[in-house]
Structures are given as C-alpha cells and as structure tokens.
Amino acid sequence: MSSASPLLYLKLLLVAFFWGGTWIAGRLAVAEAPPLTVASWRFLLAALMLGALLLKREGIPRWRAAEWLGLGILGLTGVFLYNLCFLNALTAVEAGRGALVVAFIPALIALADWLLFRVPMSGRRALGVLLAMSGCLLVVTQGDPGRLFAKGGLGRGEWMLLGTALSWTAYTLASRRYSEHLSPLALAFGGCLCGWVMLTVAALAEGSLFALGHMSWVGTSSIVFLGVFGTAIAFTWYSEGINRIGSTRAAAFINLVPVFAVLLGALLLDERLGSRVLAGGACVIAGVLLTSQFKFSFRSTAKGG
Asked: Could you tell me the residue range of the domain that residue 109 belongs to?
C-alpha cells in the first residue's frame, strides 16, 4: 500500500473532478425535483450500469449473508444517508459553499484511523490535512472564514452538510473493511443497489418517486451525470483507491472536490473567482501532496494482478 501506479492517482483526480461536478448537477437537479426523487433515479442509473459491468467481468454475484450485511452498511452510509443530507443541503446552500464539507472528511478519516485503528499520524500528514482544510475554507468562503461563525451563518443547510461529512467518513472506513472480501466493482454495485432500494422506499413513502414530469433537459442531464459519472464511475475508482493505497490517502483527494466545484461553478453558474479563492486552491493542492506522500511505481499493485 506504500506505492501505486500513476494511473491510479489519475483516476482519483478524476473522481475529485466528477464529485466536484455533482455539487453543480445536484443544485440544478433539486431545483426541478424533490431530493429523494433525484437520488432514487440517480442510483437506479448507477446500479444498472455497475450491474452490467459486474456481470461482464465477474459473473453473477453469489454473496453470503455477511457480505450482504456489509453492502447494506455501505448503502446506508454512502448512498442513503449521504444523499439525504447532500441533496437536502443543496436546497438551502449554494453549490460552491456547500462543497466546504469535503474539507473536513480527510481529517475525520485520519482521526478515526488514528483513534480506532492506531494508524500512525505523522507530522507531515497532519500538516497536509491542516493546510488542505485551510485552503478549502478560503475557497468556499471567498477568503473570509469568519462567515462560518457569524450570527446566522450556520443554518439547516450547514447541519445537513455536517451529516454528509459524517456519513461519508463511515462509508470510507466500512469500504476499507469489506474491500478485503469483495472487489471494488462489487462494492460499488452492491452499495448502490442497497442504497437505491432504501431511497426508493423512502421516495415512495413520500409520494415523490415519479415527480419528473416537468423537468427540463438541464435537470434530466444533471441526474444522468450524477448517476453515471458521479456515482458509477467515481464509486468504482474510489473503492479501488481505498483498496490499494488505504482510506486516508485515497480520501486526501477529496480535498480537491471544492476546488473543482468552485471552478465548475464559475464556468456553468457564472460564479466569480477572486485572488483569495485561487490562493485557497493552491493550498488545497499543496495539502493533498503532503497528506498523500506520493510514491509512484509503474508496476501494478492491485490484488490479483
């Protein structure tokens, strides 16, 4: 786990780019449909795509009860709870500001690794996490972190964002545990399938599952992006990263998500970027490099070749 091919790091970089795009796509989608509706259709697309790929590569899965339990935990944390918080937050918080939450995820994971699994916390890694978090704060607050603590600065949307950080931390740690028994593709498909069932049941209970009649091509394409790129592809590559280089290093790339979210927001939503935002982006990149401690090897380290 101390080294990996440059291709793996490129995949994790693209995962950060896709997840940065989900903040824009999610904001556009929930403007036209209820959050549970968006989430259910998103993961239906993802489950179909991942299921077809799993059948082609590994055949029909024959998972034991314990493995189904693990996949249910992944679906609960990384799909159901995360999207419940993520999409509801986007109904109240701007996409760029909402991406703030990802700054805390690597720190939470590193702290959990240190406290629960006794993973060493080097000074360099701790410095990288702090630097990346500081950069993310500059990016999403436009150089004024004090806005987070001002009166009225924390509302329902911010509390929902805290829920996304906690649920994704739990998903990452659970993924690492179950990656010892299932392939990254199986983890991604099983988690999406279980999470989709939970979301669909909730949407049916809410009566909003088929509330798609008045969606424009923008809202529809946003759901497609969320399902295909933001879920099917990104979940598979993220699981592969956890399996090969560990949860803390893989999660370090999450620091780049708000940078991509702000850049895409500038391009697609006409948001303005200032010099402090660009400086924050530079801090994030520097923090990722320090936290990950890159060691490239051109020989594949994936299990099973």
From this structure: 6-292
